[in-house]
Amino acid sequence: MVASTEKDPAIIAHAKTLENTPWCDDYEKMISGVLYNCLAPELVNGRFRARRLMTKYNTHFPDDATPESLLADREAMLRQMLGKLGKDSYMEPPLNIDYGCNISIGDSFYSNFNLVILDCGMVTIGNRVMFGPFVSIFAATHETGVESRRAGVEYARGVTIGDDCWIGGNTTIMPGVNIGSPAKVVKKVDPVPDL
């Protein structure tokens, strides 16, 4: 997998429909799969904002909470954190994200504990999707050369998970993966030779 060389107008147009995006040239490069500087101030601030909201989400459990009030509080926090969140969707804390704004989740989504989403690229999750504990989605990647990594140069590839998928616990989904609708990832998949 190599980085793209041009920005993707369709992805940029989609990002304009999402909430809380850290707009700058490097953001447009990042979501398009072009090499970008992850240390651009707007991106650093975007990750900082996500960390603040994530910490609040992961530790929120008021003494006077009821199951209903806690659910409502967490949904409101997720709406502040994510680019798009469908109805009746819930994520058990702890949740770890890079930006949050590049994550679009459909209706009736459920994630068990310890979800990690490195959303440098667009991460789209369909309707009625379920994740077991310790699922990781990595849209972020980088070149293998040490010089570009030292300079903070990265790129990303979006991840799409279709409707009605079930992703079993301890699954890692790598950059550029598209999981069809419906799918269950619950056992080892035999390797396919590189083409």
Which descriptors would you attach to this protein?
single chain; 195 residues; alpha/beta; five-stranded parallel sheet; 5 helices; 28% helix; 22% strand
Task: Give a description of the structure.
The chain has 195 residues and is of the alpha/beta class. The chain contains five helices and 17 strands. The protein has helices at residues 9-15, 25-32, 41-59, 67-81, 146-150, and strands at residues 36-37, 84-85, 90-91, 95-97, 103-105, 110-111, 115-118, 123-125, 130-131, 136-138, 140-141, 153-156, 159-161, 166-167, 172-173, 178-179, 184-185. The strands form four sheets. A five-stranded parallel sheet has the order 2-5-8-13-16, with no helix packed on it. The chain has a five-stranded parallel sheet with strand order 3-6-9-14-17. A four-stranded parallel sheet has the order 4-7-10-15. It is globular, with a radius of gyration of 17 Å. The chain starts with 8 loop residues before the first helix and ends in a 10-residue tail after the last strand.
Please summarize what this structure is:
With 195 residues, the protein is an alpha/beta fold. The chain has helices at residues 9-15, 25-32, 41-59, 67-81, 146-150; strands spanning 36-37, 84-85, 90-91, 95-97, 103-105, 110-111, 115-118, 123-125, 130-131, 136-138, 140-141, 153-156, 159-161, 166-167, 172-173, 178-179, 184-185.
